């Protein structure tokens, strides 16, 4: 006879369930008692009721401990337990299935026996029989001192490579140096200061005091940094070394929040590689897998990052004490080659990709494009460039009030005439700059695997004053360094490429926008070349085939200014941003250090 009883854990209803089990067997005494108590045991296990199941055995105390440990080890107290049949001498079989999620079932059969309890005079009484206790009744793999446990498994951690197959990020071992209240900051600080000079006895003491008796993590060290210090640290009172695995950049200097999108993509691959296992842990500690399956191997990630260019960019920014970034993009493919930030920028987050700032005069590439498309001028149209101009109800100056008089548009662009651009914008429709910006990727949202970005925002300029401000990249106009690198890429390529940081996985845009006419982008390339050879970026005119546009962008109420330089050399488009630089010179100089190598 096969009887199946399937319930969820509801201890309060156990008595009713036991009664149902008895009714299902069609008996309650006599020779059928072994089958009855087997059913009672099965029902109690299904219900997850440790005490009820243990009470039915010949050794309730030990059984309760083992059953409880089984549930704890498997993280599951809801097995499917079926009495598969009974045999001679009070024997019976149990079919047991544990479900750990979709496609994760562990099934097996065990054999047990029921014996009469000699302490009960009436053999017909319901409590006259007991299950002979044996851990193997719960699982064939259980024996005295052994246990079983469920665990998730993952495959080998993937590696993130640069475009040439060099490791960019990989899972590595790091060690947390933890201090408890008994640690002596004066003894620990000199050891740690050899790798982290900012750590002092005073800083450690302050951290311990603020922790109110809890341990603190003084620093996290890579293996190479730990090796020369490990012996000294291990010998100090109150110091614990706690190793962990983490996804890290191949070189410490490359560590930056800009890689968070790649880290998320890496973790998705790890999660997708998850398998499962039920393990038998022997009394002496050896582990044997007894059930489960491995997941698929997580694939390595091959990025478009050029590690050599990236390291040169990091070096070019390292000397700047203000937040600074460089973003480099392959103009024809959208492949991101460089996303570099200095230490000051890293402290503010991934500002190269998501920081929004007024783009200043770099936005004149957009303004000029809009004016050309509207037919307000062509590159050779002679326009006034006074030092100061009253335009509508706004008065705007050129940088240090320089005055070029009447010059062709391409010259006004190369020397960054605010007054010329303001007058042109006044004649444009309210949405003209918004529409022109979209043609160069600015204001478009991209969903890019491995990359978290914001390009910028160019709202419609409904008033003359708003158009004048927007024309020179001020007012409500904002852009990220990534967004301005896309603008430069669009100028070079003739249309905005789809950004990509993982090979073969380009971005999807939230909208499709027709590119600016080829004549317009060709004119912009010529004007940006003139900016380098004869205009505001002559500090880098020694770099062959370089085109660019400088920008100084005022911010805040105190008259501070950010510095920008966008451009391209051959197919490598870029944007350099230096916060609070007070002018474009630091950005131009950083670009020069980077491109000259």
Automatic annotation (TrEMBL):
One Pfam family it belongs to: MecA_N
Keyword line: Signal
InterPro entries xref list: Beta-lactam/transpept, Beta-lactam/transpept-like, MecA_N, PCN-bd_Tpept
Signal peptide: 1-29
Protein name: Penicillin-binding transpeptidase domain-containing protein
Sequence intervals crossing the membrane: none
Domain NTF2-like N-terminal transpeptidase intervals: 34-145
Domain Penicillin-binding protein transpeptidase: 325-582
Naturally occurring in which organism (per UniProt): Rhodococcus chondri
PANTHER family assigned to the protein according to its UniProt record, in alphabetical order: PENICILLIN-BINDING PROTEIN 4B, PEPTIDOGLYCAN D,D-TRANSPEPTIDASE
């Amino acid at each position: 006879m096969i009887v199946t009883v399937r319930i969820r854990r509801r201890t309060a209803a156990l008595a009713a369930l036991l009664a149902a089990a008895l009714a299902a067997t069609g008996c309650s005494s006599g020779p059928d008692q072994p089958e009855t108590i087997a059913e009672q045991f099965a029902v109690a296990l299904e219900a997850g009721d440790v005490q009820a199941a243990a009470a039915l055995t010949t050794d309730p105390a030990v059984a309760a401990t083992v059953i409880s440990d089984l549930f704890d080890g498997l993280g599951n107290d809801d097995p499917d337990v079926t009495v598969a049949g009974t045999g001679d001498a009070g024997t019976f079989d149990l079919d047991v299935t544990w479900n750990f999620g979709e496609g994760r079932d562990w099934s097996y059969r065990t054999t047990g026996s029921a014996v009469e309890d000699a302490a009960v005079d009436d053999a017909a009484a319901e409590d006259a029989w007991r299950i002979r206790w044996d851990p193997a009744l719960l699982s064939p793999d259980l024996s005295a001192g052994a246990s079983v446990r469920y665990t998730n498994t993952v495959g080998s951690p993937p590696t993130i490579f640069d475009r040439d197959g060099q490791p960019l990020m990989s899972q590595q071992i790091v060690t947390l140096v933890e201090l408890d209240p008994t640690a002596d900051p004066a003894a620990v600080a000199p050891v740690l200061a050899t790798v982290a000079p900012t750590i002092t006895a005073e800083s450690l003491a302050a951290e311990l005091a603020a922790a109110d008796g809890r341990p603190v993590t003084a620093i996290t060290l890579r293996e190479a940094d730990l090796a020369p210090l490990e012996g000294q640290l291990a010998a100090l009172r109150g110091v614990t070394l706690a190793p962990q695995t983490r996804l890290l950049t191949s070189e410490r200097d490359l560590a930056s929040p800009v890689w968070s999108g790649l880290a998320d993509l890496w973790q998705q691959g790890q999660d997708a590689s998850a398998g499962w296992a039920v393990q038998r842990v022997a009394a002496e500690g050896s582990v044997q897998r007894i059930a489960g399956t491995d997941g698929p191997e997580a694939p390595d990630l091959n990025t478009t990052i050029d590690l050599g260019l990236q390291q040169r960019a990091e070096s070019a920014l390292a000397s700047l004490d203000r937040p600074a970034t460089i973003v480099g993009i392959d103009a024809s493919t959208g492949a991101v080659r460089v996303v570099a930030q200095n230490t000051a920028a890293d402290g503010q987050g991934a500002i190269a990709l998501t920081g929004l700032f007024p783009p200043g005069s770099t936005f004149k590439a957009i303004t000029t494009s809009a004016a050309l498309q509207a037919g307000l001028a062509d590159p050779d149209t002679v326009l006034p460039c006074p030092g100061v101009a009253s335009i509508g109800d706004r008065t705007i100056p050129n940088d240090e009030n320089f005055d070029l008089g009447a010059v062709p548009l391409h010259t006004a662009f190369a020397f960054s005439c605010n007054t010329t651009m303001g007058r042109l914008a006044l004649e444009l429709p309210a949405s003209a700059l918004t529409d022109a910006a979209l043609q160069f990727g600015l204001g478009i949202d991209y969903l890019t695997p491995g990359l978290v970005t914001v390009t910028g925002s160019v709202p419609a300029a409904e008033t003359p004053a708003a158009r004048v401000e927007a024309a020179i990249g001020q007012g409500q106009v904002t852009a990220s360094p990534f967004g301005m690198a896309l603008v430069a890429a669009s100028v070079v390529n003739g249309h905005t490429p789809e950004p990509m940081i993982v090979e073969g996985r380009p971005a999807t845009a939230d909208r499709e926008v027709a590119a600016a006419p080829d004549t317009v982008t060709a004119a912009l390339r010529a004007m940006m070349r003139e900016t380098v050879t004869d205009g505001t970026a002559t500090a880098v005119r020694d770099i062959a085939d370089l085109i660019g546009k400088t920008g100084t962008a005022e911010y805040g109420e105190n008259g501070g200014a950010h510095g920008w330089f966008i451009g391209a050399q051959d197919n490598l488009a870029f944007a350099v941003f230096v916060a609070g630089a007070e002018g474009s010179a630091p950005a131009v100089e950083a670009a020069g250090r980077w491109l000259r190598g």
